[in-house]
Write a structure and sequence with these properties.
Blueprint lengths: L3 H6 L18 H33 L8 H23 L14 H34 L19 H29 L3
Helix pairs in contact: 2-3, 3-5, 4-5
């Protein structure tokens, strides 16, 4: 039985195995930076869990809940999930239907990769434009003064406005990452 490494050494046209521990080579420097940034949001999820544990203890053991825990955990979890989409793009770990993709040769897969990345770049750019419009409403008053949208709760943080600005930033980087992937797949760069 031969392995992928044996096939590569003996001139097989199969693609080399990918390192599942990091970004794909086609993602380039941007992909490596995105992958490294993932730890920040993973820590945010752990922090959200700790805040929720603290809230349970304060509420049920001391009958003294906070006003900020719920919205903070939602915000931390939300930005982690938004960043997760970008993280998956850099690591090529997003969900895809591979019924046809796995049945074709590596050369045809490369063509598919170029087309898929180009369509995703265009889609991300359109979502970025929609997010830009949303941020315009969430970050500025009708008179043009900068003021982030607030939650309207008793604590009233600016988390909704921050989330929309963060979404715009992530979608912008995602569109650029898909462009990088499109170019590198088209060039055959690994």
């Amino acid at each position: 039985m031969t392995t992928a490494r044996d096939d590569i050494q003996h001139g097989s046209s199969e693609e080399p195995p990918r390192d599942e521990g990091g970004p794909i080579p086609e993602a380039g420097l941007l992909g490596r930076l995105i992958s490294r940034g993932g730890i920040v949001f993973a820590i945010g999820i752990v922090l959200a869990m700790l805040i929720l544990i603290q809230e349970v203890v304060l509420r049920y053991f001391f009958n003294n809940p906070t006003t900020w825990a719920h919205e903070t955990t939602i915000f931390l979890s939300g930005i982690a999930f938004v960043y997760g989409g970008l993280y998956c793009v850099a690591r090529n770990s997003h969900i895809r239907v591979v019924l046809i993709y796995d049945a074709v040769s590596p050369k045809v897969r490369r063509v598919f990769d170029v087309i898929i990345s180009a369509v995703c770049a265009l889609s991300s750019a359109m979502f970025t434009y929609a997010a830009w419009i949303m941020v315009g409403r969430a970050a500025f008053t009708p008179s043009g003064e900068f003021r982030l949208e607030r939650s309207g709760s008793a604590w009233d943080p600016v988390y909704p406005g921050l989330m929309k600005v963060f979404l715009l930033a992530v979608l912008t980087v995602m569109a650029v990452q898909f462009l990088v992937l499109t170019v590198n797949y088209a060039r055959g760069k690994r």
